[in-house]
Amino acid sequence: MAEVLVYVDHVDGAVRKPTLELLTLARRIGEPVAVALGNGAADTAAALAEHGAVKVLTDDASEYGEYLVVPKVDALQAAVAAVSPAAVLVPSSAEGKEIAARLALRLGSGIITDAVDLEAGDEGPVATQSVFAASFTTKSRVAKGTPVITVKPNSAAVEAAPAAGAVEALSVTFSAQATGTKVTGRTPRESTGRPELTEAAIVVSGGRGVNGAENFAVIEALADSLGAAVGASRAAVDAGWYPHTNQVGQTGKSVSPQLYIANGISGAIQHRAGMQTSKTIVAVNKDAEAPIFDLVDYGVVGDLFDVVPQLTEEIKTRKG
Amino acid sequence: MSLRIIVTVKYVPDATGDRHFADDLTVDRDDVDGLLSELDEYAVEQALQVSENSDDDVEVTVLTVGPEDAKDALRKALSMGADKAIHVEDDDLHGTDAIGTSLVLAKAIEKAGYDLVISGMASTDGTMGVVPALLAERLGVPQVTLLSEVSVEDGTVKGRRDGDAASEQLEASLPAVVSVTDQSGEARYPSFKGIMAAKKKPVEAWDLSDLDLDAEDVGLEGSYTVVDSATERPARTAGTIVKDEGEGGKQLAEFLASQKFI
Ligand SMILES: Cc1cc2nc3c(=O)[nH]c(=O)nc-3n(C[C@H](O)[C@H](O)[C@H](O)COP(=O)(O)OP(=O)(O)OC[C@H]3O[C@@H](n4cnc5c(N)ncnc54)[C@H](O)[C@@H]3O)c2cc1C
Ligand SMILES: Nc1ncnc2c1ncn2[C@@H]1O[C@H](COP(=O)(O)O)[C@@H](O)[C@H]1O
Fold first, then answer.
1. HSE, side-chain direction, 13 A CA sphere, residue B262
2. Could you read off the pLDDT of A138-175 as tens digits, one per residue?
């Protein structure tokens, strides 16, 4: 069976969930071979093997952390040369898309970004994408070269599928461009203890209606009662009430959870672009005319400062 | 010293309009009003700020690859304060994908001559966010992308990139390709004076032959990807909407429980 390269997104050896989802999709097309780079690369092997990686190619050179993007492109290119895969799958993070694009160009291949599903097809993998703020669904293929496809988080279930996961050192020769952009400083994000926004099964978001940074405690309390991640509209972020890393929408994160709860958010097209593919959508808004209500499975027209605390209490009571 | 900045700007269908596909599954650009992509306004803004903060002799050129109407996008950027514009227009460009667009842009950038390219973080229609990385790859210069803060001094570009796991400080020497996010600072509105001045600023028009490119390198034919189908997402079935009369939170909890979320 043909091999499929999967680029591993990990933090110091801890594999992030979207990569495990990619392994599920890769198994539909062929045998997953994972590529893990940087600090802790070899530590990813156990988790990857458990989810179907037959092989894990690793390199922990310091260049991956010291310079932007290009060293990783060099490594993937070396992996493609070594494996001749049927496709290369990369998680759709901002960096993932940049890596994938440069790789595709070098390979003379086409690139598809932000797939939400992937199937095997007669003429290569067929990717499903959700476009124009999720108002259309397209199916596309790469017509030239080895398909390079980036896949959004929450596009497939994580499945256990034990495989060998044999670790092999990947030999990489860095290109002249590899050291072009130096990373001179790095401040890791502080963990909030809540799930990652893009990976969470439930997202609770607040918008301009939350009316103040201190009031976000109401949103956080609801999120914590459900074990959810916290999101924010751009209006709330621009007002300085919540960090930009939590922004949902076109210029923030794109989320596709099982449940999305929008509080005090009107539902502008740019916000919808980042949450419209959520399975179940709920909104609390005091304006019955707010466009967000066009999307909801359940909506409450009311003041969020009445509705949300009552909801949180009720959830706590029911959960005991 | 002089510094030549090229800002790549895209003319896109208005996101608040009813965007759809044409029969050949390319983006329909006729039925919806177009405009300068809002995310590229941030790129123009940063170019103007680099220019204003510099002791060098800075020239800001805006470049677009797009249909006739894309001139509107160039005019807007010129009225914000850019010095001149280049419009690459050719019927054979219809249906060009990101790989092809980056080829045309790279050829045009090389022909124009540059020290710094500034792009937006993503186009608001395609939303791929890959063209800046592709440009850096094609031009063989550093990519310093997705910056929420930029500065240029003594032939070095520095900036802050807020990533998923960390916020990074980046540095590269010119020439380089930069892209900026919507966190980089609000774009200015064109002044009346700016709008009047824009009318007299030069707009150069190039076609594929000016860039030594052939029709088969670009367009639908040259595309590296094929769209097999595009279907409108079915409207979501109308949900239940209740008015809070004191029990809204409890009713919502009941709904969540019925859906097994609690
Ligand atoms: C290029 C571009 C990119 C953008 N990217 C994004 C993006 O990534 N994400 C994003 O979110 N936006 C984005 N926007 C902005 C977007 O257009 C909207 O301006 C934004 O989403 C509005 O946020 P909001 O819904 O919180 O605020 P508003 O539109 O002001 O809505 C606030 C809502 O809260 C309700 N409300 C007020 N008080 C209460 C209360 N006490 N109880 C209940 N309800 C209450 C009001 O009825 C109203 O419906 C972008 C815009 C552009 C041009
Ligand atoms: N046709 C185009 N003409 C000029 N610039 C473009 C074009 N397409 C993309 N760009 C630039 O590349 C950035 C990213 O676009 P994209 O990769 O398509 O999301 C945009 O913000 C623009 O700066």
1. 22
2. 999 999 999 999 999 999 999 999 999 999 999 999 99
pLDDT tens readout for residues B160-200: 999 878 999 999 999 999 999 999 999 999 999 999 999 99
Q: How many angstroms separate the CA of residue B199 from the nearest CA in chain A? A: 32
CA-based end-to-end distance of chain A: 50
Ligand nearest to the CA of B62: 2
CA distance A165 to chain B (A): 26
Residue B40: per-residue pLDDT: 97
Q: Per-residue DSSP letters for B228-246?
A: EEEEEPPPPPP-EEEE-SS
Chain B residues closer than 8 Å to A134 by CB: 233
Q: Ligand 2 in contact with B98 (CB < 6 A)?
A: yes
Neighbouring CB atoms inside 10 A of A157's CB total: 9
- Interface probe, candidates A67, A76, A105, A266, chain B, greatest B C-beta count within 10 A: A105
CB A316: neighbour CB atoms within 10 A?
A: 14
Q: Is A250 in the pocket of ligand 1 (CB under 6 A)?
A: yes
Question: Which domains, from first to last, does chain B contain?
Answer: 2-222 (3.40.50.620)
Interface-testing mutation among B178, B233, B260, with chain A (most A C-beta atoms within 10 A): B233
Give dist(CA A145, CA B190) in Å, integer: 45
| DSSP, residue by residue, B118-133 | EEES--TTT----HHH
- ipTM, two decimals: 0.94
